[in-house]
Amino acid sequence: MSSTAAIAPEPGTPKTLDANRYATKKTIAQGMLDIALLTANASQLKYVLQAGNKHEFYSLMVGLISTSIVLQVLAGSLTLILLRLNINDPSRHYTAAVINHICLAFVMGSCVTNTIKMSFGLDPTIQRNNSV
After folding, report:
1. What does each C-alpha distance from 40 to 26, 34, 61 come to in angstroms?
2. Helices 93-118, 58-84: inter-axial angle, 10-degree rounding
3. CA 11 and chain centroid, separation
4. pLDDT classification of 71: cutoffs 50, 70, 90
5. Which of 6, 7, 43, 78 has the maximum number of C-beta atoms within 10 A of its C-beta?
6. Which long-range contacts link 46-55 to residues 24+ away (Cβ below 8 Å)?
7. Any domain includes 126
8. Cα 69 to chain center, whole Å?
9. How far, in Å, CA of 35 to CA of 30, rounded?
10. Angle (deg, nearest 10), helices 19-51 and 93-118
């Protein structure tokens, strides 16, 4: 079996999974989801700011959405720093691991913030009856 078997398998051999191609597709998909979440947060922030103090949880929602956006931007920035590190150099492994763990903490914080945020409801089509 040649070293390029994962790229172009020899005739008659079963196709194998190319780990690099899979990782690349997974990373691109994750990046698109991150952009979608950032766009959704920006849209929600716009809605809450337009609703103003009429929104029941105005201050809380602005705080949660802003926190989520900041955490997403920090995680993205750390990812860019991580991309610039040469992880083939063993002396960089510890630094890369620390940056990766901090980035993971920011992503987890963003997920928790978004979960809490969505429990307060942002759907402008739902009419709340406050006259009861």
Report:
1. 21, 10, 14
2. 160
3. 40
4. very high
5. 78
6. 47/122, 47/124, 48/122, 51/124
7. no
8. 10
9. 9
10. 40
- How far apart (Å, rounded) are the C-alpha atoms in residues 104 and 98? 10
> Residue 13: left if φ>0, alpha if ψ -120 to 50, beta else—which one?
beta
Q: How deeply is 38 buried, as exposed, middle or buried, from its count of CB atoms within 10 A (0-12, 13-18, 19+)?
A: middle
Give the domain range for residue 79.
19-118
- The answer to whether residues 65 and 110 touch, using CB atoms and an 8 Å cutoff, is no
Can you give the pTM of this predicted structure? 0.71
- Domains of the chain: total: 1
Q: Is 76 inside any structural domain?
A: yes
pLDDT confidence of residue 122: 63
Question: What is the band of 51 on the pLDDT scale with cuts at 50, 70, 90?
Answer: confident
**Structural domain includes residue 131:** no
pLDDT at 132 over 60: no
Whether 5 shows a pLDDT value over 60: the answer reads no
